[in-house]
């Protein structure tokens, strides 16, 4: 099989509102997951989204699924990315696969990003409004360009509103108070978070044109609250 064309992969993903989020060739010191034929993978290509571009594609797919389907967004992502993987001779993997793969480290390596105070990687264009939905693993070296570290917008943000908007101070320099956050979101005073999304995340001044619409944020918060 000839080497897959990254532009063709991007076009296949774009048909579902997804984008390729960079990639890299694994080095000899890396622990390589299996590729499509169970040989060690050589290249990792990240797949994700910017803003809510996949939402209409996902919603159309969701209408044809059982009403009680668990984790529908994960299921849709696996189906779509899996089909692209088969077309281009790759193995598709997901952030929710167990044992967990190092998606956060892969993403930083592929795009030169660093985490925000909320833990979400800060993107110079998308801000906090992006996600990684999966990855394609190839058993050949793909011709990725050099990855340069991006300017980290959080270093330029003096006020840090993302650490000052949560009513229960779930995020701080000490880390994320998960139980505190979840209890608030589930409780009687968490209505704004359930319907409009995380107040800290929404307070970030960067990438606002990519901010998820309220119905998308409500979908994710409902999933989070059901954990």
Automatic annotation (TrEMBL):
Superkingdom of this protein's organism: Bacteria
InterPro entries named among the record's database cross-references: 4Fe4S_Fe-S-bd
Residues in 4Fe-4S ferredoxin-type domain copies: 145-176
Protein name: 4Fe-4S dicluster domain-containing protein
The organism of origin for this protein: Aminobacter carboxidus
């Amino acid at each position: 099989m000839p080497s897959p064309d990254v532009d063709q992969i991007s076009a296949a993903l774009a048909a579902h509102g997804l984008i390729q989020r960079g990639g890299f060739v694994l080095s000899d010191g890396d622990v390589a997951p299996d590729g499509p034929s169970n040989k060690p993978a050589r290249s990792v290509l990240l797949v994700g989204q910017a803003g809510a571009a996949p939402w209409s594609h996902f919603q159309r797919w969701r209408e044809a699924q059982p009403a009680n389907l668990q984790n529908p967004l994960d299921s849709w992502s696996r189906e779509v990315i899996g089909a692209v993987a088969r077309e281009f001779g790759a193995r598709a993997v997901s952030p929710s696969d167990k044992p967990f793969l190092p998606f956060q480290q892969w993403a930083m390596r592929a795009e030169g990003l660093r985490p925000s105070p909320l833990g979400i990687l800060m993107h110079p264009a998308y801000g906090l409004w992006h996600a990684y939905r999966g990855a394609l693993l190839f058993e050949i070296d793909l011709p990725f360009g050099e990855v340069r570290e991006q300017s980290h917008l959080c270093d330029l943000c003096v006020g840090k509103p993302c650490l000052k908007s949560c009513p229960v101070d779930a995020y701080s320099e000490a880390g994320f108070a998960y139980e505190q956050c979840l209890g608030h979101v589930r409780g009687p005073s968490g209505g704004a978070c359930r319907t409009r999304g995380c107040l800290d995340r929404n307070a970030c001044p960067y990438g606002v044109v990519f901010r998820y619409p309220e119905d998308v944020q409500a979908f994710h918060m409902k999933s989070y609250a059901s954990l």
